[in-house]
Design goal:
The protein is α/β, with parallel strands linked by helices. Helix content is 20%, strand content 16%. The relative contact order is 0.18.
């Protein structure tokens, strides 16, 4: 039975809740131990919980790029960006929000951006040209990069919120500049100690990457970030009740620095990392509550997922490794953030749309890069030639009408993982593992020989069987090469 088309008058609202560094096993419905996620579990109970849905890369900027452009990040050499990097999405290319604007949607982004701004050498004291507006968002309220990078200020519609013009902001990611004290010089000022990479400007008792001076009135308070972002997201919902809207709600949690509000401190048995999972779940509940109050929940497509796999030690000393206990952040899968193994990209993913999606579980093999083409199909928009070149239409699968998944799925990291049904291949890489990865207790999957695993029999990728199945390896290598050279 063909999937029915939707007319513009019945188009649902679309909310993508994009969590940072949340692993497959970090939510209750997927087996979390030591922390409860009742709001996410309710979405899963009343919606569709995916067991094999993936972000496109095991790091943040590449996944966000692919989600919004429908293109793999390697095509634009997209890597983790510094806080003053230029915008990496070409404003002339098609994007998910631009496509939805054409379908009559009001579009908004609230939360972590980390896709660059301007053309480089940003002047933080005036409206920044080139940002969310130029790639299709009518409204934006941003953490410009990450919580561990300067500048530690919010941007609303590409202007710093609360900036005193007599106290201008200066940011540097190279030369040290006088201004806020530096973590390596004033460790007694710190709430959490860090690795050397995070020992730049101290803001709110946390030392960051990079150096900063000025903008004192505009500085965020880490403990208030979830409340500020959630209030802005809910305001966007409340201001757009008369037309279909697209909200990309990109939470800061559970990225480091993990600084839970007192409301959530000791809400888990895992210390700060568990506490900010509970905090993140509360934010999810606030969004669903706002939709329900406006009578919009029934016809809102909520997609809850994450940008990359979990990481326990990512630079700040918050004892996540020591306190994890029996909890398995990757849900029993091998790998983590930065890794080519499954937990690097296999994401907790829940789709909730009471009007159309029946409760259940889906094992379909899906990628976030396909949301562009899938949502275009939902709102009857054609994807222009040259746009979303890697995105495929799996709308029926996202909505639980089909179990069909991708025949081949790319997992970008510092090498490449590749899926074909339950086969998992990892491209050889002989480069030594960089010290910064070693220090995070991560195995990125670098091996000089091909790796092949049968995930149906070996979900933890413990036994390399490439030598037993040379034809499978050759086929997957050929398919991967075709994608990389496209």
């Amino acid at each position: 039975m063909p999937f029915k088309a939707y007319t513009q008058s019945t188009n649902p609202n679309i909310v993508i809740i994009y969590v940072d560094d949340l692993g497959y096993g970090d939510i209750g419905v997927n087996g979390a131990i030591g922390v409860e996620t009742p709001h996410i579990d309710t979405l899963a109970k009343n919606g569709l919980n995916f067991t094999d849905a993936h972000c496109s890369a095991s790091t943040c900027t590449p996944s966000r790029y692919s989600l919004l452009t429908g293109s793999y990040a390697f095509r634009n050499n997209a890597e983790i960006l510094e806080g003053d990097a230029p915008l990496i999405i070409n404003p002339n290319m098609g994007t998910l929000p631009k496509m939805l604007q054409k379908a009559g949607y009001k579009t908004g982004v609230v939360g972590k951006w980390h896709l660059g701004l301007g053309k480089g050498k940003i002047n933080w004291n005036e409206k920044i040209p080139l940002g969310p507006e130029e790639v299709g968002f009518d409204y934006s309220f941003l953490i410009p990069a990450t919580g561990d990078r300067v500048p530690c200020v919010f941007l609303e519609n590409q202007k710093v919120v609360g900036l005193d013009p007599n106290d201008p902001i200066t940011v540097s990611y190279g030369t040290r500049i006088e201004g806020y004290p530096w973590g390596f010089q004033r460790p007694e000022l710190l709430k959490q100690h860090t690795d050397p990479y995070h020992q730049g400007a101290i803001i709110n008792g946390i030392s960051r990457i990079g150096y900063m001076k000025g903008g004192k009135d505009a500085l965020w308070v880490d403990e208030n970030i979830p409340f500020v972002l959630t209030d802005k997201a809910n305001a966007f919902i409340n201001n757009n009740t008369n037309n279909p809207f697209f909200l990309y709600f990109a939470l800061h949690d559970i990225h480091q620095p993990r600084i839970a509000n007192i409301k959530f401190v000791e809400s888990s048995t895992m210390g700060p990392r568990g506490d900010v999972i509970a905090q993140m779940d509360w934010c999810v509940g606030q969004i669903t509550e706002a939709l329900e109050k406006q009578g919009l929940l029934d016809n809102t497509l909520i997609i809850f997922t994450s940008d990359n796999g979990p990481i326990l030690d990512d630079g700040y000393l918050d004892y996540a490794r020591e306190l994890v206990g029996d909890h398995k952040p990757g849900g029993g899968y091998r790998g983590s953030k930065y890794s080519a193994y499954e937990a690097g990209t296999r994401m907790p993913t829940v789709v909730h749309w009471p009007k159309e999606v029946k409760p259940g579980v889906s094992n379909a093999l899906l990628s976030q890069v396909d949301l562009y083409a899938s949502l275009a199909s939902l709102v009857n928009q054609k994807v222009a030639k040259g746009d979303a070149v890697d995105s495929q239409n799996f709308l029926a699968s996202w909505l639980g009408k089909s179990d069909k998944g991708r025949k081949f799925l790319l997992e970008e990291s510092y090498t490449y993982g590749f899926r074909m049904d339950n086969w998992k291949y990892i491209k050889p890489k002989e480069a030594p593992v960089p010290n910064w990865i070693v220090q995070k207790f991560v195995d990125p999957g670098f091996r000089p020989e091909p790796q092949l695993f049968n995930l149906a029999e070996d979900p933890s990728e413990s036994k390399n069987i490439a030598s037993k199945y040379p034809k499978i390896v050759a086929k997957m290598e050929a398919e991967l090469k075709e994608i990389l050279e496209k």
